[in-house]
Amino acid sequence: xxxxxxxxxxxxxxxxxxxxxxxxxxxxxxxxxxxxxxxxxxxxxxxxxxxxxxxxxxxxxxxxxxxxxxxxxxxxxxxxxxxxxxxxxxxxxxxxxxxxxxxxxxxxxxxxxxxxxxxxxxxxxxxxxxxxxxxxxxxxxxxxxxxxxxxxxxxxxxxxxxxxxxxxxxxxxxxxxxxxxxxxxxxxxxxxxxxxxxxxxxxxxxxxxxxxxxxxxxxxxxxxxxxxxxxxxxxxxxxxxxxxxxxxxxxxxxxxxxxxxxxxxxxxxxxxxxxxxxxxxxxxxxxxxxxxxxxxxxxxxxxxxxxxxxxxxxxxxxxxxxxxxxxxxxxxxxxxxxxxxxxxxxxxxxxxxxxxxxxxxxxxxxxxxxxxxxxxxxxxxxxxxxxxxxxxxxxxxxxxxxxxxxxxxxxxxxxxxxxxxxxxxxxxxxxxxxxxxxxxxxxxxxxxxxxxxxxxxxxxxxxxxxxxxxxxxxxxxxxxxxxxxxxxxxxxxxxxxxxxxxxxxxxxxxxxxxxxxxxxxxxxxxxxxxxxxxxxxxxxxxxxxxxxxxxxxxxxxxxxxxxxxxxxxxxxxxxxxxxxxxxxxxxxxxxxxxxxxxxxxxxxxxxxxxxxxxxxxxxxxxxxxxxxxxxxxxxxxxxxxxxxxxxxxxxxxxxxxxxxxxxxxxxxxxxxxxxxxxxxxxxxxxxxxxxxxxxxxxxx
Length: 700
Fold this sequence. Notes:
Largest sheet: 6 strands, mixed
CATH superfamily of the largest domain: Metallo-dependent phosphatases
Domain EF-hand: 540-575, 624-659, 664-699
Strand content: 5-15%
Distance between the termini: 72 Å
Protein name: Serine/threonine-protein phosphatase
Cofactor: Mn(2+)
Shape: globular
Keywords: Calcium, Hydrolase, Manganese, Metal-binding, Repeat
Helix content: 40-55%
Number of domains: 3
Strand order of the largest sheet: 1-5-6-10-12-11
CATH topology of the largest domain: Purple Acid Phosphatase, chain A, domain 2
Low-confidence stretches: 303-335, 370-381, 386-394, 510-518
CATH class of the largest domain: Alpha Beta
Number of helices: 27
């Protein structure tokens, strides 16, 4: 009996260890593909940013049009935004049966919204715009760093990423209770994208924010960013949901996002940011920057920054004018301080009055440019601008330094190694080690840091000697059963208490017999989904893989060792996966340890062609580039109509041709755009865009 018990115990431990290894490998696959996608997005955005920085428009009209297309977050004056998003002129039809809002909001309005969303009802666009308008007014009065105290409530609940998963938010409220004067919440960014109910989550959170402004606090995440929303579904879903008013709602949401606070402090001891910190994180600077300038933190405004530096140097008496190789003096980027014209005689009062007005106006305009204030920006004083004005004698930070502060706290991740380095995996922010965490906590007398930004299998995870806590609230993020969601509660003692959950209707309907085998079945289901995504990734790089395999096949036998297969695959995909461990799931076992790589790639192609009836080489290219093509299409489609107008295409192609040094006449560009417009409706839809891509590929 004793030997039998030991035997069963060994078998069980090996079985659990194998399950855990499968779970970890599956997790690595999902996470590597997700981060690679984020990196592609930043590379694409940097490419367009490079084009913008090196493009010389031929006219002011062309410059304005391209700036509106590619500089995220079109600038609006206060009055222009109010006029564009005029909700008061919208009529709510009598047939509308959804919830209705009136301001100031009451708790009953929030309850009605929750019930309506549970019944799959939508809020009318008039009320959505009204809510966004009031939310924006409230957010503008908030500091960059919100301050929360446990003295006024029994505890503070901190929630991580929700990513458009409304069921998770419902479950949090069901388990923990709705926000109230005695129950404070901090929602730590990434409310939108990926999930299908991003707008509903925003409506619920903004409603509670206005009802309980002292108890509900929202931090900005890296997905509260217009350029990120273009790729991950929020923009497309919103426009599809509301064809008539979707553009107005989207424009207003973009403006609301840039006013979200960047961090929260609980009892001056616990810092809450979405991503993390870096070795240059400065909470004093973070408190004073004008956060609304960063409508997208993916790009710093380099042109304005360089112009501002020129003028600051001129104020200090330094000359920025340099000689070019030919010996001619190059003109500075911006004109220096205007010289005062000789004053006319005071005897002529009219002439003297005109001179005074002109001189004052020139000085005002020069000062505007110096402090980087454009006429399109709002003149109303906000909390951030007041803080900046009260500290004029303090240090003068450049726009690049301010941008790095915002970028680091929204995009960074912790790492177990010491130091701080660029986050090349995501493409934004940095990796910070335990030494960086210790220095920042000591500098500001903090106990620990709470962040989100990373999906964790258990919904939360400690690192850096329990000084950094990651909290993630979107359960089933990659696949049903892939991870739990969690939130953390902090009382006056600031000891974290966790609540985990899984908003999975499938699990709740299982019988007791089914539940006994549920973990194994669930792992198999998640694992299958992960390997399906990985095979798609492999197929999308078929051509590159063949070249890599041939480098190891010197004799052109069509066969390579399994070890060389693993090395070659990593050299192409750069996912950092344990390919030798994953090999049994991807490659059939061979007796001699050699792989017929051409037949293996053919099997991948057959698997993908069973889903898409397109030739293999073309399908490979589309699989590899579809996400980028969709994002490029949405960037060019400036008005988010789902169609590229001839003018939008014309200006974009001028940008590309300038970059590639190709001389194209306007007639040539017009002929090109008409050839892509297959149905001759005067616009290019996404199918026509892809079809043109397909035709070019086939001709090559």
